[in-house]
Amino acid sequence: MMKTGMLWFDNDPHTDLAVKISRAADYYQKKYGCKPNLCYVHPSMVQPQLVKTSGVEIRPNQMVLPNHLWLGVLSA
Fold first, then answer.
1. Which phi and psi (to 5°) does residue 27 adopt?
2. What is the pTM of this model?
């Protein structure tokens, strides 16, 4: 479970979800000094063939609004 994270908004319809997550993960790493390994997205954004990208696991979560990514580090 991830207790805290960074919310990222990206509504560009021409950018692939993997690219959006990669950009957000790069920003997260620069800002917080560690690489995120978990990203929650709205179920409508889930791509069946994409479960992990750039070392970040992608999970659907109804509480995350469409076009938003909630990135963070999975806590034990």
1. -60, -45
2. 0.91
